[in-house]
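Quick one: structure for this chain?
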Amino acid sequence: MNISTLIYQKSTFVITRPLKPETLIVPVRAGQVNLNEVYLLNEVAGRMWELFDGNRSADQIVGIIIQEYDVTAQEAWTDLQELINQLEERVVLIQVKPK
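Got it. Here's what it folds into:
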C-alpha cells in the first residue's frame, strides 16, 4: 500500500512524555496503564510521533524529517513505515480521512 498520502493521528488513549532526546508513549486502556505496552521512541521516531497531528500526510512528515535530520528520503520512508506499522497495530496511531 502507498502510504504517502495517508494521514495519521495519535490515539486519545495514550499518554506522551518527552524524555529528551527520546519520547515515552504509554497506552491507557479502560483507565489502566499497561506497562507491557510502553514505547520508548528515539529522537527521530519521537519527532515523527509529534507530527502525527491528523493534518499532515506521510509524505509531508518525511519531507520535514529529511529537512531536520541527516537522513535520506529512503531512510525516512523506511523508518516512518515501520513506526506506522508498529503503532497502528497497537492502536495508538489511527489513520484519519483528510479534512
